[in-house]
Amino acid sequence: MTSDLTDDNAWIFRELQRIGRSIRKARMDRNLTEEDMLLDVPMNQSYYQDIEAGRANPTLDTLLRIARVLDVPLADLVR
């Protein structure tokens, strides 16, 4: 665990990528486009794309909104 923490927070980047993939998969499983998501989750498209790509660090509020639109528990997205 300690080596992960000293690895320039690379573990955080890996987790953000994993969460982004989970969000993208849930969206696609529901046949939703990015535009569909943005109608219900107020944010700009590039920020949403960054979340799905694991390049953004979304707030809990944003993750909760995304989970609600996808109709999945937040735990399923971050698990």
UniProtKB/TrEMBL annotation:
<feature type="domain" description="HTH cro/C1-type">
    <location>
        <begin position="23"/>
        <end position="77"/>
    </location>
</feature>
<dbReference type="InterPro" id="IPR010982">
    <property type="entry name" value="Lambda_DNA-bd_dom_sf"/>
</dbReference>
<dbReference type="InterPro" id="IPR001387">
    <property type="entry name" value="Cro/C1-type_HTH"/>
</dbReference>
<dbReference type="GO" id="GO:0003677">
    <property type="term" value="F:DNA binding"/>
</dbReference>
<dbReference type="Pfam" id="PF01381">
    <property type="entry name" value="HTH_3"/>
</dbReference>
<protein>
    <recommendedName>
        <fullName>HTH cro/C1-type domain-containing protein</fullName>
    </recommendedName>
</protein>
